[in-house]
Amino acid sequence: METYLVGGAVRDKLLNYPVSERDWVVVGVTAEQMLEAGYRPVGKDFPVFLHPQTNEEYALARTERKTGRGYTGFHCFTSPDVSLEEDLRRRDLTINAIAEDAHGNLIDPYGGQEDLKNKLLRHVSAAFEEDPLRVLRVARFYARYHQFGFRIADETFELMRLMVARGELKELVAERVWMEIHRALKERQPEMFFRVLYQIGGMDYLMPEFAVEKLLDRAVEVLNNLLDKSEEAKCRFASVYMHLHESRLLAWCETYRVPREFRDLTLLVKKNIGGITAELAKNAHGMLGLLESLDAFRRPDRFARFVIVCEAAFHVEEGSDNDFRVGNLLKDALRVSAHITAADVDANLQGKAIGDAIAVHRISLIEQLLEGK
Fold first, then answer.
1. Structural domains for the chain
2. Is the pTM of this model over 0.90?
């Protein structure tokens, strides 16, 4: 039984980039032998096992044969005779096809170290085009490593473009598309993910509205303004997808199984960003009304995300030198008034009168805030 560290852990260690998880390939054993050694099987599609102590994933060396369309149309073959080189050949990029043995020696049959040195994202073999999900994966890796000067190899870029032109992105499973978008949003330069998809024609299939360069430019400008304010994928998603029409946004989120909290934050921004005006800063009643419509008193964390996204959009409209005064006042208004509850009003009040009394008290505090500004 020979085990090798593979994939991202090896790649990122060579790049001095943070390693988030470790994956292993096992050569020379059967699934039965893995079970006898105490490994726990996971999934049904591939021979993957969890280590009995570390819970890290150990996969049997395998080869694959294309049997149908899309991400799942593969037949997986495992055998003790499958070599490490054969297993590495089925991987997407050369920089992901480097292995490390128990002694720290690197096995690199496809030139991954040289491509790391040359800052090149290059596919391993013609097997790349059998899986359309790899188009999105390369775009995501580009979003991660562009900051270091990486580029997509010309032949890989052309292959991605041809795969899109053949309509292969239509075969992707919705959940896998969302997974790649979600991961891309958390990368260092998520703009590059969208730029690559635009350049190869992928927007026509995945996000038709952003196939219009002007709209894409505006969306990524807001996204870039947001990057230093939030690393949360929810905020970054809202900064991009707030530019879709509401009906299209709802349909897109349903198609790709986008989590509700992503959708709801984006809708909140779309519906309420127009209410953050200079006049609002003079109107305590209006500020309280907006805070209530945003459900800010019950959901302050979501409200904070709302303000962050609105601020990023504001700086695109007004310029980075302009202070987001109204948004900051809204945060202050919530801070000074959120502690007011039913316990702070006349105990003899009932029903709607309690809510009215709370509102009066909160408005008074917000007015005092505005007078002091």
1. 1-110 (3.30.460.10)
2. no
